[in-house]
Amino acid sequence: MNRNFLFIVNPISGTRTKGGLESFIKTVCEEKKYVHTIIHTEPQMDMDSLSDYILKSKFTDVIICGGDGTVNMVINGLRHLGINFGIIPVGSGNGLSRGAGIPMKPREAFQIIEKGNVQLTDAFFVNNHFSCMLSGIGLDAAVAQRFANGTKRGLYNYTKQTLIQFFKAHPYQFEIELEGFRFFSDAFFISVANSNQFGNNMTIAPLASLTDGLLDIVIVQKMPKAGMPLAILKQVRGNNKLFNLAEDVGKKNIIYLQTASLKIINHQLAPFHIDGDPVETESELNIKILPKAFKMLVP
Ligand SMILES: Nc1ncnc2c1ncn2[C@@H]1O[C@H](COP(=O)(O)OP(=O)(O)OP(=O)(O)O)[C@@H](O)[C@H]1O
Q1: How many domains does the chain have?
Q2: Structural domain boundaries enclosing 40
Q3: Where are the beta strands (DSSP E) in the chain?
Q4: pTM passes above 0.80
Q5: ipTM surpasses 0.85
Q6: Which of 7, 9, 10, 140 to mutate to test the pocket of ligand 1 (most atoms within 8 A of CB)?
């Protein structure tokens, strides 16, 4: 089948201007005689009009050129079309792309797109918010909020905000219900991961798979703050085993488990983010996997 590529470029993702990327896309597509069109995202994009345009123009592949916020917006708005999604990762964190093994260099990412290897990929809902990478409550959401409010993006600014928020961090009270089991936790943050990481290869859920029909839940419980970096490092390195709910919750600093759904009662209205973008927090979060939610072009 002849392919017809629609490239959707977010002009503000990451730190680089996108002129070079667009020249690359034009050159490589002209060289290889691929039919292609380039458009830009808008902050509040009309996805219904975009869907109509895609159907009318008979695009076969939508290529997202941006970070996780752009990936979320485009996939959520267009997944009902059953179209292939490729990613050229040019965001700040690129957590979904990195989790899927998509190269960070545009030329290499485009080679993956050309190969056309389609993977049916999971996503999930948190209440009515669509998420395909990683969402969370507490400290990491505070980082996402400050990062979004800042004028500068990129890894340096993300790291700076993480350190500032770490020193301010305090635990929040949560009540967690899953698989007929209910427990309380005072936690600095809870990550709900489909991809294995926050982005920038900061792995938080080493066993996460984009295709297993499960979410990886990481609960970083109250502990002396000085001990938190080492506890997280152990989690990142995969030293923490998957948690068995029959064990005593109180014995572990970090709880790591997999489930298809869970409910979190957010007693103190801890901040909340979806795929790295802050959203208004809610007192009850119903989280559910959406297996095989979209078609992604992967290595
Ligand atoms: N044309 C535009 N002008 C301004 N903002 C835009 C435009 N298009 C999209 N946005 C906003 O850009 C934001 C950031 O996009 P994105 O998440 O892709 O980049 P990033 O935050 O740098 O990367 P990552 O999420 O991987 O860390 C999104 O919140 C989106 O609403």
Answers
A1: 2
A2: 4-126
A3: 4-9, 35-40, 61-66, 84-89, 118-126, 129-131, 134-138, 172-178, 181-193, 215-221, 254-259, 261-266, 272-274, 277-279, 284-297
A4: yes
A5: yes
A6: 10
